[in-house]
Amino acid sequence: MIDKIEEFCLNILTKIGLKKLADWYKQHQEGMRYLVFGVLTTIINIITAAVTYYFIFANFSEEWKVNLSTIVAIIVAWIFAYVTNKLYVFNTRTSHWKELLKEMVSFISCRIVTAIVEIALMNILVTVLMFHYMVMKIVVSVIVIILNYIFSKLFIFKKGNNNHEEND
Asked: CA neighbours within 13 Å on the CB side: how many for 121?
């Protein structure tokens, strides 16, 4: 499905005279897909954070609202990011449940690191320095996207992890 949507968009670019852009996209497909799904993950993270901050945890203290909203948003975004990164960005396949478990543990471990960075920055910027919650959420999300790409590329979805053996 994703491949068909992507090919449709690339055909449109070619037909409107932007073939060089379509070719450039194809050459950088992994990075472009990471960018697209990273933006979608960030949108999911921000919407979840806003809903939880302004509605679900609205009556909590500022510190609790910031922390709980950030944690819930991170978990929802993790689920979306893992599935899309595995299937559509890095195209890794695991033939054994042990490989899948190792990949998932690596993903969660790296995401815990960036979650700590995100929570710490949000606490400092919102509860200590009193910056606007949603503005800081967007700024911090950019930092997290960059760190997550580096971790995903280097440690989690390595091309060497593709093991297409049929044995269990």
From this structure: 17
CA 51 – CA 57 distance, rounded (Å): 9
* Dihedral sign for Cα atoms in the order 109, 110, 116, 119: negative
Q: 86, 92 in Cβ contact below 8 A?
A: yes
pLDDT of 164 > 80? The answer is no
Ramachandran category for residue 158: left, alpha or beta (phi over 0 → left; psi -120 to 50 → alpha): beta
Total domains in the fold of the chain: 1
Average pLDDT over residues 69-82: 95
Q: Where are the alpha helices (DSSP H) in 123-155?
A: 133-151
Closest CA to 151 of 92, 98, 85: 85
For residues 72 and 51, what is the distance between their CA atoms, to the nearest angstrom? 10
Residue 118 falls within a domain, yes or no? yes
What average pLDDT does the chain have?
A: 90
More confident position, 160 or 125: 125
Q: Is 0.85 topped by the overall pTM?
A: no
Structural domain boundaries enclosing 70: 30-159
Tell me if 112 sits within 8 A of 148, measured CB to CB.
no
